[in-house]
Specification:
This protein is 50% helix and 15% strand. The chain has helices at 3-18, 22-25, 31-49, 57-64, 69-83, 110-113, 165-183, 194-201, 208-219, 234-249, 259-279; strands at 126-135, 138-147, 150-158, 187-191, 224-228, 251-252. The chain has two domains: 3-99 and 262-280, no CATH class; 107-255, Nucleotidyltransferase, domain 5 (2-Layer Sandwich). A six-stranded mixed beta sheet has the order 5-4-1-2-3-6, with helices on both faces. With 282 residues, the protein is of the alpha/beta class. The chain has eleven helices and six strands. The two termini are 33 Å apart. Helix 1 packs antiparallel against helix 3, helix 5 runs antiparallel to helix 11 (259-279) and helix 7 packs parallel to helix 9 (208-219). Pfam families: RNase_H. Residues 122-248 form the RNase H type-1 domain. It comes from Araneus ventricosus (Orbweaver spider). One of its GO terms (molecular function) is nucleic acid binding.
């Protein structure tokens, strides 16, 4: 079997099974437990490398690029403590005050879990095109308002470097919704982000930021239509250009860091811990 396929199989099946419940037990491993994890992992590392059985587990980890299980278990524990428990004991990794919040599904009002917006409402006062952009770790979004196919107003905003383009797309939609409510007008909002529309339509999102967007849309649903627009439509091309411009000249706009950012930081944590573990190996 292809080595890459073997690694995918390991990460998606074996590692998940071995680390089941690590969010609870991963932070307090004894030496015996660590050794037990390594001995189980070693079986698979030998299969991947076909190395001599005398090869050390540490060397096998390096050869496969698969980190030691006890370090991954600790990262799973930390992720749960930060994301679900909102613990500040790991603020050296990331300040939880800057992070999006986990929301249990039971805490979300049932009427807001499923939002079915019309793709287009009749007699809309304005057509609004929204877009988000991320270039070289910089993120921004734009909201372009059109009246009778004439661009009358553009709003440009710059986000933090840790914000994702997905968040930018959602923030743009939310801004357009709030603008319609504030101005007491009906609008059709057009986005080229299918992922944003899917998140709005999903009943299973646990992100406080996404649920806040959904809540605002729910309150304004009789005033707003939301549709996916093809690339190449003039209004969408305008929003795309303005979103790129927002990265350098947009007004500062604050939204929390996404869960994906925390996962990225924990990948770095694993690498750093692995380096320390390797350097202490004799």
């Amino acid at each position: 079997m292809n080595k890459n396929l073997l690694k995918i199989w390991y990460y998606t099946v074996i590692e998940k099974a071995l680390l089941y419940g690590a969010s609870v037990w991963g932070g307090t491993l004894t030496k015996n437990q660590i050794d037990r994890l390594h001995s189980i992992q070693r079986i698979f590392l030998l299969k991947f490398t076909r190395a001599f059985r005398t090869s050390s587990t540490n060397v096998l980890n390096v050869l496969t690029g698969i980190p030691p299980l006890h370090i991954v278990a600790k990262a799973e524990f930390i992720k749960f403590r930060i994301w679900v428990n909102r613990s500040n004991e790991y603020n050296t990794i990331f300040d939880i005050n800057l992070l999006d919040k986990y929301v249990p599904l039971k805490n979300i009002p049932s009427r807001q879990k499923l939002i079915n917006l019309d793709s287009k409402i009749s007699n809309a006062d304005y057509e609004i095109y929204t877009d988000g952009s991320r270039i070289e770790n910089e993120t921004g979004f734009a909201v372009c308002i059109l009246k009778d196919e004439i661009n009358i107003q553009n709003y440009l905003f710059k986000l933090n470097t840790f914000n994702s383009v997905f968040q930018a797309e959602l923030a743009a939609i939310e801004f357009a919704v709030n603008w319609a409510v504030k101005e007491k007008v009906k609008v059709n909002i057009h986005t080229d982000s299918l992922s944003s529309i899917s998140a709005i339509n999903s009943a299973n999102t646990r992100s406080e930021f996404v649920n806040k967007v959904k809540s605002n849309i729910f309150k304004a649903k009789n005033m707003v239509g939301l549709s996916w627009v093809h690339v190449g439509i003039p209004g969408n091309e305008l929003a795309d250009q303005q979103a790129k411009l927002a990265i350098t000249s947009g007004e500062k706009f604050v939204i929390p860091a996404p869960y994906s950012h925390l996962k990225g930081l924990l990948k770095n944590y694993i690498v750093n811990e692995w380096n320390e573990y390797w350097n202490s190996y004799d």
